[in-house]
């Protein structure tokens, strides 16, 4: 009925934004510019999640990464003396290892994309069938449902890990508690 | 050409029940975006005038009186002044970031209005993640404030930006907890709902994050969420109402721009048009968080007492026409007339002040202008009585009226409360609001599951203690 929102044009636009943003993150000498480029990349990634009919993941991406973690990043970076950081020589001694690793990862992605099972491409077939309007509810069911929920334990363990990290940070930062 | 007209008229059909964004109607979505943008700008201009007048009257002053009758044209004069003022970029500033920062704030403040529901069909679109989207995008505005403070390369803005980021990140947590308790309340579908009802056993379905869905849940349960599980809903509302003032950097939490300490805080180095963008963003962010509060706790577009209809009468020209489910109550009719009456009253106030204007010939043009303004308000009031208009805009009117109440509260706070110290602010956020929010969340869950909790915890504990007592008695 409605024309699909997820047209190739938007995918290529967002992918190009992400790649340009990612390159800017590692090439800018000014750390605040790098952080802003990283925010652009993360927002484009959130839009890609929207295109995959996963609005909940997109919303969480915006709140956690762009609105929470990056604010704390900026908070710290702002207090660094930018003049001194800009004068430092950028060193990069692992370009050979890094290049090999990047090539291997890229080759892995391309080979998975080209892999065929029973004469069919892997990618267009293995798509989840959840509609956009059930995404949040589907995630909740995977986590909390009495019968279908299977990730509750992993979720709780992950949040316990974060809690331990928070308490550890407070204990290490404060001399007297 | 004919198809185009059909396409445009398709959304004017009274049987339409979705927003243009959900229906995929690009023309009407564009119209709604423009309407919201224009309406928001007008609201910010009106807010500028009202804030100065109301603050002045609270301090027994007159406020702006020179430009236009009772200073009505003052915001326009201010806007012209700001546009022509020199736009200074400090020599040592980071030019690119300094240039981008105000736009980040404005974009974040305006984008959230995509999901604000002014009525069941009057929203740009309805998202499955509505409230999450609003919280997420409005939290992006802190990025603009932080970068603005840093890019100015000056001490006051940097301190203002640091304060602002610490404050906004802290209060977002308490705000989120209050919102989650409301989302929990949306999940109680069924017949046996109301103030304390949770629906029949086994009827609990999943709740919703959609802004329209949250208001529909309040309509279905027949209670505004501020009164749900009294006093739990009220506590959640208070947590949000405090956190939202801190989120928008307004008095008494306006530390990022505390004049006495930081001259103007994060926008000290901004002037002219760029400064006015910060101003615009601040006021539209205030309207945005107020509309979140109205949607979540005060029933959104629902009129007061949506469950009462009064004796059945024949209402002249109900919209949609010939609809068997159309309201027929006398109270429905009375509330439907409210928007028109409100505008007529505003017009009457204008004419009352026309008579009180000084009779000096120099004030002749101003008196005529005020009379003209009153006539326009009265005409709008009369148009609002026309049945199709009346029935289409009443939901927008109630939503706007509730948001306007919050706007008045903002001004009232500013005129009443002294500014918090920064450590007091952090103390309120982390040691009062956060624990209260967590307790509220747990209490809401326990209250909703009170039958199950009773049979799973209280009854076994009681039986166990009784059996221990028996054993002790037998020992004696």
In short, what is this structure?
The complex is a heterodimer of chains A (177) and B (476). Chain A has helices at residues 8-27, 31-51, 55-77, 82-87, 95-114, 135-144, 152-173, and strands spanning 116-117, 120-121.
Folded structure, characterized:
The complex is a heterodimer of chains A (177) and B (476). Chain A has 177 residues and is an all-alpha fold. Chain A has two domains: 1-87, Four Helix Bundle (Hemerythrin (Met), subunit A) (Up-down Bundle), CATH 1.20.120.1200; 131-177. Chain A contains seven helices and two strands; from the N terminus they run H-H-H-H-H-E-E-H-H. Chain A has a two-stranded antiparallel ribbon. In chain A, helix 2 (31-51) packs antiparallel against helix 3. Chain B is built from 17 helices and no strands. Chain B has a domain at 304-420. The interface between A and B is medium-sized, with 32 and 32 residues.
Shape of chain B: globular
Unreliable stretches of chain A: none
Q: How many strand segments of chain B?
A: 0
The fold-level CATH name of the largest domain in chain A is: Four Helix Bundle (Hemerythrin (Met), subunit A)
In this structure, how is the largest beta sheet of chain B organized?
Answer: none
Oligomer: heterodimer
Structural class by helix and strand composition of chain A: mainly alpha
Distance between the termini of chain B: 98 Å
User: Which strand order does the major sheet of chain A show?
Assistant: 1-2
Annotation field: number of helices of chain B:
17
> Can you give the mean pLDDT of chain A?
80
Biggest beta sheet summary of chain A: 2 strands, antiparallel
Q: CATH homologous superfamily of the largest domain in chain A - what is it?
A: NADH-ubiquinone/plastoquinone oxidoreductase chain 6, subunit NuoJ
